Amino acid sequence: MRIPIAATLLLVLFVGAREARAQEKGGKSEKADRTEKNTAQRLFETAEALLDCRVQGNKETERTKLMGTLDKILEKTKFGEGDTARAKMYGAPLKLTLSAAKLTPVLQETVSETTLDKSFVVTEDLRVTGMSDCVVVCRKHVQVTGCTNCLIVCLGDFVCNSVSGSVVFGKTGARATSFTKSLVWDEDGTPALNTPSLTGGGSSDPAIEELRGLLSKRESFAEALRRFRKLRQKSSIPILVEHMTHSQDAIDFEACRSTLVILTGERLAEPSDRTETARRRVLNEWIEQRWNRKRDLGLDLSKFESSRLEAVMNELTATAIEAAGVKRDDLDAGISAERTERALSRLLDREVVKSDVVLPEDVSATMGPALLARASKEADAWPAARLLATLVRKGEAPDLEKAFSEESRTVFARLAAILARAAAGEDFAPAPVVELLDKVRKREEKVAVTLALGRARESSAVLPRLLSLLKDESAEVRDAALFAMGDLRLETMPAEVKELLSKRRWDESVALLHVVSSFRGNMECSELVARSLTEALNDADGRAAPHLEACLTAFERVTGKRFLDRARRDEPDSSRIQLVAKQALEWWKRQGGK
């Protein structure tokens, strides 16, 4: 069907007019934003000038003029009528006008613990409790508890609690709690975080308030986060969020982010960059979209729905993997006896399970079935077993012996059940595991079951089966048998292992190295491992051999001395490992080693 020319022209004119209106609307929005930022800049400039002429005398006229300028800025500006998001955040539009001429001037270096009403305050430092209808201009620091219908302009940092019907500007960041029908802005016009919208107010609990001081000190920061997780109180969330908003340390923010997810079970995205603006955007989004929609949300894990439990388990898993120094890629790769052994030893070592990476308060009995379900895949089995081990120590784990015997479960889920008990320090009967080994056919399953036998305490019951695996057609299975023997902590080295040492380059076999290093305190074995470490360090072109870290681990094991801290959150790089290896060998020489 052909469209008449006139109709076509009308359509073009209509579309053009609509686009023009849209552009005009967008232009007005941008203009409004620029006006708000210009207003903020004018306020700061006027405040700076007022502070410079704070003294009485020949500058009194100038001061009065500046006060009038400040009053005019306020009279012509409506704050809070910007975009929809801002209107939502701050509620009803606010127009604050204060006549500076009618206010009583207060000019002094410091105003502390004073109730001020209808005053114009120009000061260096301010700490007040309760004030209304005031204009405050301060150079360094403002700390206010309770203010109504006020303008506060601070050229330093400020903390305001219980702010109503007011406009607050801060040069270096806004820390405000419980503010209603108010604007709290940074210098660039960015709204501050309205923290108490999380909880409806602060906490009078001394244990909660003490956390604020612990967070502010680097030496007690980790302890503060542990206390947050131990207490699991909703009233502590504002303090944690406040620190996340204003801390200048990117590592602090990430640790707080992880803690917040573990506490609430609500996903909190990582900021796009490390800037204050990016952090604030992430937190505001989390508060508005996640937390505020569930105002009655508690932190009791036993009452979490499945989605929140899943978020907590995901965060705890990621934390445990990172702290253990295990690479997620290695977990996903599977099959390799060396990779699997590394994951088992670093995630399920009994001392590791006792550490504070996963706290008893972080897990609950309600997680048990979900953890067993996610353990179906090998990559997820060992981290799940790590969390299950904490449940075992709490006495809240499901019947893991029953879970192991359920043939409907995957091999890895059954192993996770038995390994969780071993990691928690409990004995398990090795006979059912040996029986399972005889049934499995897949190579990766055979490797995993073989390695699990190394966690049994009855070495006499499993050693013959492990020795028979030294003749298996799969090199991975043979290595798994050696790793398992090394974990058994045998008193004497089997003849079969000695024969392997005489035939193979033992220093190139991580599995053999693991067996040798299990004889702690044995001088001959110590010398063998030290030689392996030396040769790995002196590899061609001065570069470390691929198995240098394994040699260093074996050296630590045979000597009983720790050189490389694997509790570090960041995976040590090759240069770091080389340096530590040199230090370990220097120590060995001082002990009389060759």
Characterise this structure.
The protein is of the alpha/beta class. It is built from 25 helices and eight strands. It has helices at 5-52, 60-75, 84-90, 206-215, 221-231, 237-246, 250-264, 276-291, 306-324, 328-333, 337-348, 350-354, 368-374, 378-394, 400-405, 411-423, 430-439, 443-453, 459-468, 475-487, 495-503, 510-517, 523-537, 548-559, 574-590, and strands at 104-117, 119-132, 135-148, 151-154, 157-164, 167-170, 174-180, 183-186. Strands 1, 2, 3, 4, 5, 6, 7 and 8 form an eight-stranded parallel beta sheet that branches. The N and C termini lie far apart (96 Å). The model is unreliable at 1-15, 78-93, 193-202 and 567-571 (pLDDT under 50).
The number of helices is: 25
Shape, principal axes of CA atoms = elongated
Let me know the average pLDDT. 76
**Largest sheet: number of strands, sense, barrel closure:** 8 strands, parallel
The SS-based structural class is: alpha/beta
The proportion of residues in beta strands is: 5-15%
The Cα radius of gyration reads: 33 Å
The count of DSSP E runs of length 2 or more, i.e. the number of strands, is: 8
**How many angstroms separate the termini?**
96 Å
Oligomer: single chain
The amount of helix comes to 40-55%
